[in-house]
Amino acid sequence: MASMDVPADQPAKAVRSEARAVANPTLTWLTLAFMTTASVASLRAAPTMAVYGLACVFLYLVPAIVFLLPTALVSAELASGWSGGVYRWVSEGLSKPLGFLAVWCQFAMTIFYYPSLLAFVASTIAFVIDPSLASNGVYTAIVIMILYWTGVWVSSRGTKALAGLSSWGLIIGTLIPGTLLVVLGMVFLGQGNPSAAPMTADNLLPAWTGLASLVLIVNNFLSYSGMEMNAVHVSSLKDPAKEYPKSMFLAMGLVLLIFILPALAISWVVPANQLSLTAGVMQAFDAFFSYFHIGWMTPIAAVMLVSAALGGMLTWLAGPSKGLLEISRSEGYLPPFLQQLNKYGIQQNILVTQGIVTTIIALMYALIPNVSNVYWIFSTITTQVYLIVYLLMFVAAMRLRKSQPDHPRGYRVPALGLLCTVGLLASLAALAIGFVPPSQFGGGSVWAYVAFIGSGLIVLGFLIPYAFLKLRKPSWRTAAAESEGSPS
């Protein structure tokens, strides 16, 4: 997910602070690589790619080259020259209304992100209680609503203790379970057991069944989002021009290993036609633990995955909404009701409003029979909305290189135009392919799928922010924000 830093230092202040950071580096390139890996890597998407067996290597590599790399390098140049995150970048390069659109999409994507994240949590918990619940839509909807509203309550009180759990997310919820999956899988194969998915050279590429066979690549774009989060630290390196690319290439390698190896391990033990997109990780653990007669470890694995996911949710719950709030208070983009803070200084009204929408979305799990289908649809809408941010970012980067070529930058991307063009075309292709139902949706209505995805993208990504801009009034801009000065 993207950086939620609030904009607003004046240009001179920003340059001075960046100069001090370069003069007094606080990060090594290795530390930044690990920070970036932690912000991007997750096991949640592994079942989605495990469906494709050995071909998941190809499906992860393609978006890494055409999207992950351009995003990481381009955002580094922007962050080293303009503080304030994507709002400042797009506002400087394009316009303030488009800057608002970018920061709105960062917030809006979480509306579908949290239900899909909590659906993964629900299916994981189900393996401890009753595995059959993992495919029960009513159960999934209830868990989503309970966990989300609990998170809103915790966040609205300004409590940071539980949110701190996410700092251990990479170790507890990703590295340890991921390594365990891979080790158990290798031992499983080493003992002569056949892989559930064929592992021959003929299976390196996904079977071509038309455009539907490409759709899973789109979901990987969202898996890689977040590389720009740590781009704000580029000026804290001793030699950004040399160390940042080195850091990003290492992070990309680590992210690919964390994504690919567990996905392969799942495909070794769970047949594709039996794999749940939400419960696939626990299906694999359950199968391995049963085979090795260590079933008592299933609840332990579930607790590790759940604790990391919930910790991440608590951390991110207030982040995007806080970024939106700060922009709106200084520029008057949201009505006063949504700008109000509670006694703990938290944007409670935004969180509650988002919670109502999340509750409605959660009910879709109860109404649509196949939980995996709902999970996929919401993940796709999340990706579509978030891609708008990257489209704006790539265009803004090219415009800024031309309009402000002499603006101080701590890092300049080699061949910026080429990288932005590749990233832009890849994002546009992903946006288009996202409207094609994946092959496992063969029995459903194509037009119903397109209408659902399109409606989610248009309403969330365009109509709502347009309405805010159209209805915007001078009175929406708070006196407190005006006294602080608006972002430049």
Automatic annotation (TrEMBL):
What's one Pfam family here?
Answer: AA_permease_2
Q: Where are the transmembrane segments?
A: 21-43, 49-76, 137-156, 168-188, 208-227, 248-270, 290-319, 350-368, 374-395, 416-435, 447-469
Report whether Cell membrane shows up as a keyword of the record.
yes
Task: Give UniProt keywords alphabetically.
Answer: Cell membrane, Membrane, Transmembrane, Transmembrane helix, Transport
Q: How does it sit in the membrane?
A: Multi-pass membrane protein
Q: Where in the cell is it found?
A: Cell membrane
Q: Which Gene3D superfamilies match?
A: Amino acid/polyamine transporter I (1.20.1740.10)
Protein's UniProt name: APC family permease
Q: What is the organism lineage in this UniProt record?
A: Bacteria, Bacillati, Actinomycetota, Actinomycetes, Kitasatosporales
